[in-house]
């Protein structure tokens, strides 16, 4: 692994330019260099393969952070998926006729989720969640939505913040609803994961007006006993559509939605990220009675008909199943979590570790957390790792990678522990402190 | 060209299955087999190359219809675009870092549209129009939108049909707003293209409450003298954002938005379809003061960060410019329009021909139009052509193709003319009459 000399390089220079051309600099909050290491993060890649990434200066890193925001469960540039995509390109990615692979993909998703009967496809996660909510509203003739957690950028969701800062306790505090029509106020009602009392209060107030209950079946922690079951029963009783957002949780602990592990079936489930392994693809699957409502409304887009998406998804999902990729992801997560714990003990840091195994996360118990994590990221980058306080496991993460990674983590935890002890955290930073959430760029 | 024997084949059998697995059968209304030739249309493709398409039975057709709904201006599976995409695949389509090509693409789009300063990207046309409207609403702090024409499936647009059937006179009559929250009623105010009086009435009533004026700069006809200019002046006076939807009109008569031909600049312009030549890609470009409002709200999605989209767009746009593809498209359209006229005169049909040259359309002046067009499509399919009452020109359409096509058109117009004379239109159809717009599938 090449070591980073601290030269900010071509990536930062290009990013400086990007900020004059692209509001926010990137297309995704979680890929803003400021979310990692302002003024030092390599920002752009020239090549990505397996678990390795090369920046614009040709420096090589091991990716031990959110790994393409969870989009590449099999690893970057997976050969089997790419081979299938090359076939799709050779035979033409678009035509006036339809791609037969979308029917095959619908069948495969339904085979993996026997409660579901039908599927519709899109290309992005935020987009497919908007389709799911549209279908639920069309099926019920109602507008209101009870929800828990983060579900993307679209109007239906950000409307939650129109009245109050309802999203404040959810994933990204302070998501601005600027530009979301005020007529959507009072359509969104939040409840916290595993807070069944709060859920009951939402139901008490809005009960029969709820079109949908939207949630991830699992967040940093799994469901408390009876939590998902009561929500399922309540949805059925109210005639509301239960939507599981599996955009992040899907294809982690099994091939398909994590809800299968909990034995509770939704009415609709949405997938994106992991299902395409880096090629844009998204799906909503559901029970026939609900899905048929898609026909009573208008949900249609030209680029949902191209061939690469379904072909990539078929190859990704089949490999995921055939190679038992989920088991690998779980093992990687467990090894990493145990390694973090050990490294913290050795260096005297106190960690809180959470997340399902393949989406592991740690929190250093200290003051000025953002500065401390920034120092950790800087120390890891110096050692040739793209790192942060989370690691999304990939099939490309091999034992040797994890050994190197955990060695560097121990060294970096040591840097952090000593800096905390000596009060030198800010002094050791060669650039500004990382951003922690939604923040306007000058 | 192989002739179609009338056997409905594998495509129709697969489509029958698709309808049990996918509500509506396809992901796009305009690709439903019922929109062309119910029970006979080949429905799916195995291969597409240049202007040719092969169905699941290996039958070859020349594509002389909407040509991938206008997504493939260069032709199917264009070698230069595909070569660039293969490079992107080899170097990895996704990473935790960003794809540098998106900065290059922002620069190129701004170079082509000197009034614009910044760009954001998405992957689908409906999606990018929702981003444009969000930015306009965020920039103005207002919710209402004056609009003309069709702009996709999302809530902000379908809201137009909540109160009345406002979309009735626009592109797709009867678009159902089922599932669109009622709180969005009275946000959308339609005006007809080139009806400046109607536009003035909308402005009189809603003037300073308008966040945006959304329209295609050109529809079947071009702008009447002063029409776009008055809209531009009014938008500036009201402080409303003028958004040109160039998803369909872009990259037809020049490299970039058709508005450049009319000398009227919007505040934002949106592109998709033609810019990716069959790979999902979409962009909104705009003036800095408006685009910066994207930073006051939350617009972010994982698959907007992959590499194939920008790489395909760069290759498509550069080839479009270098080869003067627009000139070719215009010539194809003119040849086709002249050929239609000649064929109609020879066979005694009366046609109304419209559309900009690269997006040519004809309307047979007769009763029972849907049945008559169905007979035309059937006759063309028998002769080895995917055809309808429109032809979207492609760089892959060569003079020899057009000669074959216009020969088949003359024969098929003759079939239609004789059937009209003899009252045998319905009798000659081997399947049901085509659908003409939004229609529920049983």
From TrEMBL, chains A, B:
Keywords: Aminotransferase, Pyridoxal phosphate, Transferase
SUPFAM superfamilies given in the database record: PLP-dependent transferases
Required cofactor(s): pyridoxal 5'-phosphate
Record Gene3D superfamilies: Aspartate Aminotransferase, domain 1, Type I PLP-dependent aspartate aminotransferase-like (Major domain)
InterPro entries: Aminotrans_3, PyrdxlP-dep_Trfase, PyrdxlP-dep_Trfase_major, PyrdxlP-dep_Trfase_small
GO molecular function: transaminase activity
Extent of the signal sequence: none
Highest rank taxon of the organism: Bacteria
Family: Belongs to the class-III pyridoxal-phosphate-dependent aminotransferase family.
This protein's name: Aminotransferase class III-fold pyridoxal phosphate-dependent enzyme
Species: Pendulispora brunnea
Lineage start: Bacteria, Pseudomonadati, Myxococcota, Myxococcia, Myxococcales
């Amino acid at each position: 692994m090449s070591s980073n000399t601290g030269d900010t390089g071509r990536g930062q220079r290009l990013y400086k330019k990007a900020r004059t051309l692209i509001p926010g600099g990137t297309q995704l909050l979680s890929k803003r260099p400021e979310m990692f290491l302002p003024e030092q993060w390599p920002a752009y890649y020239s090549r990505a393969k397996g678990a390795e990434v090369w920046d614009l200066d040709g420096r090589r890193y091991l990716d031990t952070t959110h790994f393409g925001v969870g989009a590449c469960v099999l690893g970057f540039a997976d050969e089997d998926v790419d081979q299938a995509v090359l076939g799709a390109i050779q035979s033409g990615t678009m035509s006036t006729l339809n791609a037969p692979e979308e029917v095959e993909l619908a069948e495969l998703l339904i085979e993996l989720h026997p409660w579901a009967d039908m599927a519709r496809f899109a290309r992005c996660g935020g987009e497919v969640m908007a389709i799911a909510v549209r279908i639920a509203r069309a099926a019920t003739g109602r507008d209101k939505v009870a929800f828990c957690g983060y579900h993307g950028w679209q109007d239906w969701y950000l409307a939650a913040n129109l009245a109050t800062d309802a999203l404040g306790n959810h994933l990204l505090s302070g998501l601005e609803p600027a530009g979301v029509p005020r007529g959507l106020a009072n359509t969104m009602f939040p409840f916290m994961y595993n807070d069944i009392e709060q859920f009951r209060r939402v139901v008490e107030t809005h009960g029969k007006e709820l079109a949908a209950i939207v949630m991830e079946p699992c967040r940093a922690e799994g469901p408390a006993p009876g939590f998902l079951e009561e929500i399922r029963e309540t949805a059925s009783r109210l005639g509301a559509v239960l939507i599981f957002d599996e955009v992040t949780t899907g294809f982690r602990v099994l091939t398909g939605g994590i809800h299968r592990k909990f034995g509770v079936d939704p009415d609709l489930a949405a997938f994106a990220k992991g299902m395409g392994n880096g090629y844009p693809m998204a799906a909503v699957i559901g029970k026939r009675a609900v899905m048929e409502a898609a026909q009573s409304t208008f949900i249609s887009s030209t680029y949902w008909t191209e061939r690469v998406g379904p072909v990539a998804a078929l190859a990704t999902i089949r490999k995921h199943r055939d190679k038992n990729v989920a088991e690998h992801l779980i093992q990687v997560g467990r090894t990493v979590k145990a390694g973090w714990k050990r490294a913290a003990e050795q260096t005297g840091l106190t960690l809180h570790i959470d997340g399902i195994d393949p989406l592991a996360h740690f929190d250093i118990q200290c003051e000025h957390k953002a500065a401390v994590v920034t120092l950790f990221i800087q120390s890891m980058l110096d050692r040739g790792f793209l790192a942060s306080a989370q690691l999304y496991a990939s099939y490309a993460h091999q034992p040797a990678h994890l050994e190197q990674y955990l060695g560097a983590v121990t060294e970096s935890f040591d840097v952090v522990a000593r800096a905390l002890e000596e009060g030198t955290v800010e002094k050791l930073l060669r650039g500004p402190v990382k951003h922690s959430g939604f923040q306007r760029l000058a």
